[in-house]
Structure prediction request, 393 residues.
Amino acid sequence: MTAPTAPITQDVLTIARKLPEGGRTNIVGLTRDQLRAALIAAGTPEKQAKMRLGQIWQWVYHWGVRDFALMTNLAKDYRALLAEHFEIAVPEIVTRQISADGTRKYLLRIAGGHEVEAVYIPEEGRGTLCVSSQVGCTLTCSFCHTGTQKLVRNLTAGEIVGQVMLARDDLGEWPQPGEGSTGDRLVSNIVLMGMGEPLYNFDNVRDAMKVVMDGEGIALGRRRITLSTSGVVPEIARCAEEIGCQLAISFHATTDEVRDKLVPINKKWNIETLLNALRDYPRLSNSERITFEYVMLKGVNDSDADARRLVRLISGIPAKINLIPFNEWPGAPYERSDWERIESFADIVYKAGYASPIRTPRGEDIMAACGQLKSATERARKPAREIAAQAGL
Prediction:
């Protein structure tokens, strides 16, 4: 194998957000403490701030209301004060594509005119929303289409929460006053597996998940939220303590030589360092187990020897292994493993005592599957030679 040449992270392209100066404060994405402070600063009497916070929070996150004039348990003059100082803004849906299997992919425009993608995946008994945390990605994972797009900027907490809210808009999921809830949730699970590395935008991701998990609003429990990371080791313990959600690791290889190529952040924190950081995560976060994501690449990481090595590596870590058939994209330097090879790999892992589901590719016809997300304005096709060279292949 040739020496890998892909950098650990890309050069960061910084683009001004072009937010209006002196504009109204967006309520979406503010934590309870931040919103309380903002309400007081805007003229809410401090003695009333807790009550007003609870009322506004319920209107925005339980009922999905975007207009202060509709918040009928607030006095008219207070609604006017809120409208003067605040807004309730979510990203704009530029396009919505619906796959033959029901998967929905949203192209979203955010502040500064930038674009990200979010994907809703309906399944029997659950509905999973895959949200983005960055415009582009800092990492250069060679099998991932998103990784060929440079990082533009981190998303704000409001832009992350806003993806959840607009999906509920599109699905008609907000409850109506006077109507009881059936208990069924269309958006029942969230995975931070869209564009970007969530742990490189930690503060905004943490604050967004605080809002999403709050029991008086969207109210998704921490076990319903999974954060996927390529292995930003210094932030893993912090994620356990400050977010406490489920953790998924983009693992994809069983030797440092191969993982250096597939997930170049491995050059900074290798497999041994990463696994050592993971051993305490279930205890620190009170999570049941860690998910290891493993994309199946033909002739690269899919041998029986790889399967046996994977089982040895994760020994002692409560875990399941999600086997992901590679989702191809234009110019991709890899091919999907043959189905028989994937099943043989899964059988070895299963017999070693680990759940090893093979993920059914979803939304491939609209480029909505894992590793395929890339904002449309950045989707210009690179020649396969260029992508392979960048990946060190």
